[in-house]
Amino acid sequence: MDEVVKRDSLVMKNAVQDLTHPLMTVVIDTEEEFDWSAPFSRSARSVENIKHQHRMHQAVFKTFDIKPCYVLDQAVLEDDWSVEYFKTLHGLGEIDLGVHLHPWLTPPYEEEVSAYNSYQGNLSEDLEFKKIETITALFERRIGFSPKIFKAGRYGLGPNSIALLHRAGYEIDLSVVPNGTYQYQDGGTNYLRAPHQPFELQQMAFQPLTRHFTGWLSLIGPALGGLFDYPLAKKLKLIGLLSRLGISRVVLSPEGMPTSALYSLLAERVAKGDRFFSMAYHSSSLMKGGSPYAASEENIDHLCDCLSSVATYFKEDLGGEFISVTDFAVFAAKELPEE
């Protein structure tokens, strides 16, 4: 899939550049647990992992006064227990809620189930909008209000997605993952030139997931971005070589990332002037066997401990503050006029 957003074609709103302290949001891709190595299936809809979310909520989010954003997919919205759980937390003002579209799970079922079609942006414009309409109506019916926050499953925005989301009433998108591409994987979205700080495009406010380069050669990272996703580079172990030479690519997530790498990412990017950060993980990673990052209870312990440690470091060492997705969007809209 071609690039959806580019640095040279955006109306930017650099609302955080004058902040004296950094801000961070936390986003949870809230979905079914399934075998990530198996073909996509419409029958894999178990959401037992939702019953494991309270551990993180109590141990980390309440401790650090974090108001996370749970983006809910079709399987979660169909489950009565999950809906009541999230409605309760939202009613208490403790979380934000949005929509997460897994195209293979959301009707209408007009496309072949495949890796290529798992990116909503690879569907026809008509079918993509039908699926957006379906899950939006389901959210409204089950949760009780119209969603304004959206995150594409597999980060799969396409050439029609932004206009379709705006048409459906969405205002905030969380799908962008800068400094990388999914085009080599199975025809996914290319985000190599997407901004890594918040921006606006086609009347949609974007809050990108934080992914950037660290190390003394990090400045050349954007020029090498595609190499980190190129299959042959992985096969030849070039990524490890680049790390030893002084450049690594780090995503702000407790899944599969050493805590020390997240410290380095935050410290280096704050020093370079970044003031917005977004952390994310999958709800299924809090249940043993729920995702590749939760093969054991020890893995889950690490995930919770990592997020707690990063929160402590961000607040105490970097002077950062946590902010909700909705509150940041309101703040950004107030700070600077439209360009």
From TrEMBL:
GO terms of biological process kind: carbohydrate metabolic process
Under InterPro entries, the record lists: Glyco_hydro/deAcase_b/a-brl
SUPFAM superfamilies the UniProt entry points to: Glycoside hydrolase/deacetylase
Q: What name does this protein carry?
A: WalW protein
